[in-house]
Amino acid sequence: MGFERFGRKSFTSQTKVAAFVDYLDKGELRATKCNNCDQVFFPPRADCPNCLGDGMEWVEVEGTGSLVSFTQVNYAPAGFEGDVPYILSLVDFGKVRVFGRMRSDVPQEALKVGMPVKAVICRLSDGQVAYEFLPAR
Amino acid sequence: MPKDVAVIGVGQSAFVRGYPGSIRELAFEAFREAMLDASIGVKEIGASVVCSAPEYDRQRSPSGLIAEYLGLNPQPTFVIENVCASSTSGIRAAYSLIKSGLHDIVAVIGFQKMSEISSAESQERMGRGADIMWESPFGTMMPAYYAMHARAHFEKHGSTERDLAMIRVKSSKYGMLNDKAVYRGEVKLEKALNAGVVSSPLKVYDCCANADGASCVILANRDRAVELSPKPVWLLGLGAATAPMNLTGREALDGLSCARAAARQAYQMAGLQPQDIDVAEVHDCFTIAELMAYEDLGFAGPGKGVDLVRNGETYIGGKIPVNVDGGLLSKGHPIGATGGSQVRTIVLQLRGEAGAMQVPGAEFGLVHNIGGVGIYSNVIILGR
Ligand SMILES: [Zn+2]
Prior knowledge:
The complex is a heterodimer. Chain A contains one helix and eight strands; from the N terminus they run αββββββββ. By secondary structure, chain A is mostly beta strands. Chain A has a five-stranded mixed beta barrel. A three-stranded antiparallel sheet of chain A has the order 2-1-3. The radius of gyration of chain A is 15 Å and the shape is globular. Chain B has a nine-stranded mixed sheet, sandwiched between helices. The longest helix of chain B has 16 residues, at 23-38. By secondary structure, chain B is of the alpha/beta class. The A-B interface holds A 3, 6-12, 15, 42-43, 68-80, 83, 86, 88, 90, 96-101, 108, 113-114, 130 and B 120, 123-124, 126-128, 131-141, 143-144, 147-149, 151-152, 155, 196-202, 246-249, 253. The structure holds zinc ion. The site of zinc ion (ZN) has 8 residues of chain A, from loops.
């Protein structure tokens, strides 16, 4: 349990990496890192496909990333209708890439592929918690 | 060049909005046409492979039902599913069943009745086509993923919304000639460019037409193919590959790595090069997907796909005619039926039976069928 609180609408509640949501509550965006081979994973995972290990530690996704691509969605699937339009983005933080949304007050005209972007934690009105991106200056 | 397995029969229902019958009846339309084309009886079919994306089916385990209705008991049957790439994956399985010697003749039946579920149910399923833990909670859907690929391609290679619109103009030209296409209307350049934005930069006419439909491809081993078919079309090369479902696992967004890998395998197996291909069917679920396919299949160098578009080289008479049956954009995209329909188009082309859509003298053809946003890919090269 716990993962049902991730994002506008989560589709699953049980995962070994549900602590991700606890870190969001503390204002931290975390990835997992394999204790054995040091590979860093985002999305976080409980198991390492490189060495088959299952010893993971939580490491913070820090600093500024580069905007890989983005799109403004004008039609939404069920459960997201109230949010349109919103901007989905992929951001490269070097060791990991992170998929998410731009903060809703950022217009797509302000965005450019390759621009510096940072991640911030956001709380939604209904107790859900997520992260979102902002242009970094 | 291996000539071990051939297509001896092809069939396709009309692709329509809101098919007024059951899935078994829809599948039968394609099966009947393929059986008449192959001129064989049901007892000749050693096994059937049924291809459908189950999220659209009310029927649980549809292969049993379909095999019964088609008269294919007591032969074995099973479902192969790879979302939009299901029926070419079914053909890959059928190829293996035949090449292994287990069966002489195998029927691959693909179908989808997209209208089987309500619009609300469809909206609900739309959000679950991605990584449900890490992408869906943000409100993702298929056009958004391809839109992000489009943006990346624009930025890296200078392609434009106009290039994409020109691809749709071509699809509509050929869709108008295809009496099995769901969208028979013309799409002029201005109309495509001025249409509403679905997910920027993709607009309404950059997206394929949903449809209900079925396809059937009947494959046979060398001996039976030569015995039964006056014009067998050989499966010369098959390639298949995968890529991460989650976009965070993709090296780059300006192409599909799984398509490049599958193409490499297929060309190698066939002993052919991209320039040997006379006609191609590519998975144009969105216009950007067709542009990326030109490059992933080697019809153009990296970033050079726009040259084919701007010079009209993918029309009949051009360097490499692509989707001259209207493609997914105009012919329609009934998920489980699409790959089999693409193969049917190429088979008709190589037999010289494509009518107004015929590419004169086509000797080698290629099918590129993608499941999800570049998760699964199948590339099949066919020849006379
Ligand atoms: Zn490891």
